[in-house]
Amino acid sequence: MGVSYPGCPETFHEDQQFSRGQGQKGMSGDQHQKVHRIRRGDVIAVPAGAAHWCYNDGNEELIAVSVLDLNNQANQLDQNLRGFMLGGGQSRHGQERASRRYAGQSERSHEETFQNIFRGFDEELMAEAFNVPRETVRRMRQDSNRGLIVKCREDMRIMSPDQEEEEQSESSPRNGLEETFCNMKIKQNIELQREADVYTKQGGRIYIANQQKLPILQFLDMSAERGHLMPNALYTPHWSMTDNRVVYALRGELNAQVVDERGNTIMNERVRQGDMFVIPQFYATLMRAGNNGFEWVSFKSSSQPMKSPMAGSISVMRAMPVDVISNAHQISPREAEQLKMNRDPESMLLSPTRTSS
């Protein structure tokens, strides 16, 4: 994957021998900005307005989930999602042909049409700006039905660091002084079990990618969480103090409940692989994994997210005096103490005390 920053140097230089190996004899070695190797479990942060592309050179399908925050201060337009494409295109005629394969999509065909931005410029001016023949510009501007994902005519060999070298570089100590915009780290793997932020043997584990681990997130004001609940385990009832969340189910099943400020249940659903749901800021939520456990990734609208749990050793109940809890809920002091202490020492992930139905 490549992310292009304006004004940053081309730090990757391909020698002539590498270029000739692609059947391009006579061409000088290519130069380009850094190319990143991505793998399963990576979170990638792309700054607003930065051109980016990705190429799958593996032998497996790559599934990626993309989340954009239109409320971010970097967005000076309205709340409509816009993508400005430097290549590809989908004409109305081509989209209508494609939509016939899928029932119920004909109404969306017009909205999903697009052409790359070069098509809107004058051919002669473009040729002069790039100092290339008009025929080259004409091919860039012509209508395309290839869509957003295109098939390469032949395998591409793009110069990038070995995966082992890149992993060693990312794991080396950083003091922040060497973090400049041009070489800023843009990815963090959130699937490494040994680096979980929260772990309980019977509850599961959580890994959080925030601005401390991935400094570029402070510019995006976003973060991500990767979680794994063991069979029938619970994610303690809690609310988010800082952010809205979009949750994407990776594996397993989950019973998810969300409650608003009036005590109304606005969600009580069985969530399965491939489902996605939203948890607004301050809305209380409680989640219980199914018999086969549950794995998810959530994207948050804060680079430094904070949660307030309601049960467990670090909960709001634990912080309150027994008499306050007793009088607020009209229960005995003994019952209030049980509310405070019965989940000790567990915190965010709670081991099951009964099986799910």
Automatic annotation (TrEMBL):
Belongs to the 11S seed storage protein (globulins) family. It comes from the Eukaryota. Pfam families: Cupin_1. This is 11S globulin seed storage protein 2-like. The lineage of its organism: Eukaryota, Viridiplantae, Streptophyta, Embryophyta, Tracheophyta. Keywords: Disulfide bond, Seed storage protein, Storage protein. SMART domains: Cupin_1 (SM00835). It comes from Populus euphratica. One of its GO terms (molecular function) is nutrient reservoir activity. Residues 333-346 have a biased composition (Basic and acidic residues). Residues 1-34, 159-178, 333-357 are annotated as: Disordered. Residues 4-138, 188-337 form the Cupin type-1 domain. CDD domains: cupin_11S_legumin_C, cupin_11S_legumin_N.
